[in-house]
Amino acid sequence: LPVQTPFETDEDNEIEQDIFDINEALGLNLFEGDIKLENERNS
Amino acid sequence: IIGDEYRWPHTIPYVLEDSLEMNAKGLILKAFEQYRLKTCIDFKPWEGERNYISVFKGSGCWSSVGNRQQGRQEISIGQSCDRLATIEHEFLHALGFWHEQSRSDRDDYVTIMRDRIQAGREHNFNKYDDKTSDFLNVPYDYTSVMHYSKTAFMNGTEPTILTNIPAFIDVIGQRMDFSEYDIQKLSRLYNCTSSLSFMETCSFELENVCGMVQSTEDNDDWQRITQVSSGPQDDHTYAGICQETGYFLHFNTSTGNPGDRAVLESRFLYPKRGFQCLQFYYFNSGSEGDQLNILVKEYTEENPNGTLRLVGTIQGSPVGYWELHHVSLNVMSKFRIVFEGVKGSTASNGGFSIDDINLSETACPHHVWHIRNFTHLLNSSPLGLEGKLYSPPFYSPEGYAFEVSIYVNGSTTPFNLAMYVSLISGANDDFLQWPCAWQQVTVVLLDQHPDIRQRMSNVRSVTTDPTYVQESSGEYLWDRPNKVGTNASFPNGTQFMRGPGYGTSAFLTHERLKIRDFIKDDGVFILITTEDISHLISTEQNFTTTQTPHQMTTTDVCAAYGCQNDGICIVVDGKPVCRCPVGVDWWYTGDKCETKGTKENTVIIAVASSLSIFAVMLIITVVTACCIKKKYRKKINAINNLKFQNASAF
To answer: Annotated catalytic residue: which of B33, B74, B88, B90?
Structure first.
C-alpha cells in the first residue's frame, strides 16, 4: 500500500515562540516580559 | 535579588491548581526533578506552610522575583508555557533570579540596540546595580536559561541584543535546561553542597577511576585505556573532539579462557529515594558470547558483607559504535554497583568497554532511539517521501503503541528539527480504552555531556487528551489508529496504521543542535518515556486558611484527603480522619465514607444468616441420622448372619 501522509498538529504553528513572545501576543505588559511585580498584585 | 527575606526554604511547598493543563502538570513535576538532580532545592506539596508557590494556568508565563512573603505566591504556566525550560525559568525567578542581561556588568558582554526595541518596551532592558542584584562571582552567562533571546522585544527583524562575542549571538535565549552557571549561581545563593537525587558520575579521565575498585575475587581486570585497535578508537567523553586523550575502561576478551571474569566495583553509595537509574555508554568489539553483568552489592545489618543481586545483562553482536544503556535499580540500603565482564566461548578480537557512567536517583527513560550518521542527515536534502525519520514502535506501560517522528530539516522552516508523536496500531488495541487518555510522552534529545548535572538536553512532552478533536476531520485525535490513522509500514514490510501526529515544528533549531553535545560519535540519542498522568487530573489542595497580611495559619489540613459522600474531615493527631454521615435507617462507613449501609441490609443479613445456620444444622442432623441408621443396620445384619451360621451347623 502507498504510504499516506498523516495529519499533523503543530503546537508551535511553525514559529519558535519564546516566553516573551507568548506574553506579548497576549497583550501582557509585564515587567521585563515575564516578571510580576509585587505592587501589581490584586489585593 | 539581594536580601535574605527573598529566600525560600530549601524545600518549597507548592500547589498545582486544577486550572493547569495536564501536560503542564506533568512537566512541572519533571522540572522539579531537574531541580532535585542539579540543585539542593526540593519541592513538596503544600501542607499549610506560611508561604508557598501556587502554580496555575493564567494568561501567559510569569512569576515574581524571590519569596515575597505573601502566603500564596503565584506562578502562571499558561497556554504554550508547558515547556520544561520555561517552567525552570519561572521557578528561577521565584527563587530570586532576574534575567541574565539585567546584571550590573552586562554592558561588558552585550550591546542593547535601543533603536530596535518596540516603543514603550525599553524598560525591559533595564539593568540593576550591584546593591540590588548580585551575580555571586559567577561570570556573565550567555548560555543561561534566564537570558533573553536576541529577538526579544524587537520592532523589526534586527536583533535587540548583540553579544560582544559574536559566536554567542545564537546561543543567548536557550530554552533547553539550566546552564552550568545557572546551577552555580543557584547553589551559591542557597548554600547548596549536594542534591537530592544525584549520586555519581564517572568518565574515567582520572587515574583513581572515581574510587572504583578491581575485585580480588576474579581472574582478570578492567583496563583504563584510550584506544583499542578493534574499537573503540576514541573514548566517548571526548568523542569527535580529541583522539587518544580520554580514557575508558576495557575488558579484553581476545585472550584468556571462556568464563574468565573481571569484576569492577564502585565506591559505596548511599541511596535516599530507593530508586535509581544507572546510565552508561558501552562499546562491544568482542564476540557475541561475551557478557556484561550489572549487579548491585547491598549492605544491610543482616548482611554486613554485602549481598549480590543481578540487575541487568548486556550481550550481543559487536556493532562498532558506542551504545547507550540504562539499568533501573531499586536499592534502599548502602550499596555498590558491580560491573562483571565474562568472557564467552566464541572467538573475540577485542572486548567491551564502558564510559561516561551516571547514577542518579531518578527514573530511567523507557526507550532509547539512536539515530546514527546524523551529520549526513542534517546536511542532506529532505529524506524519503515525507522527509521524516520514524522511531521504532514502542509501547507505554498501559499497552498503547506509539511512534515518534523527527523531521531533520523541519517541515517548512528549514532550520528546525520537528518532532511529532503518533499512536500506532498495536497488539493490545482491542483491550484498551479509546480515545487514549492522559498518556504523557516525553521526548528528550540528549545532550551527551559526560556529567548528567551539566547536560542541557532538549525536552518536549505531548499528552493525549481524550477530548481533543481534530478541526480538519472532526474526529478525536487520540482515537484508535485503526479508526483515525493512515496506512504505514515498518522497514520489514509489516503493515500497520499510524494515527495523526501531534508535536512541534520548532523542537530545536539547527544552530542549537550543533552546540553542546547533542551530536556525538556522529549520532544522537532520543530518550522516550510514556507515563499515565491521569492521577494528576485533580491536584489542587483546598486548604481552608485564614490569612493575615504576612501570616497564614492552617485550620484545616484535610480537604485534599477526599472524604466521600458528604463525610466531614477532622484532624486527629495531625492526620485527616473522616466522620461519615448517618441517617435514620442508613449510614456510610470506610476510611473515606466510601461504603453505604442501610437498615434493610441488616435485616437481609440477619435473615440470610439465620437461614444459612438452619440449613447447615439440618444438613448435620440428616447426615448424623443416616450415619446412625447405617451403623445399626450393619449390627443387625451381623447378628442375623451369626444366627444363620449357627442354625446350619446344627
So the answer is: B90
